[in-house]
Amino acid sequence: MNATLWTYLAYLVLCVGISIWVGRTLRQQGFQLLTADRGGDHTLADAFSHLLIVGFYLVVFGSISLLLKLTHHVQTAEEAFEVGSAKVGFVLLAIGMMHFFIVGILTINRRHDDQRIADEEYRATRAKNLASMEGVKFVD
Question: Residues of the chain with pLDDT > 70: what percent?
Answer without folding.
Answer: 89
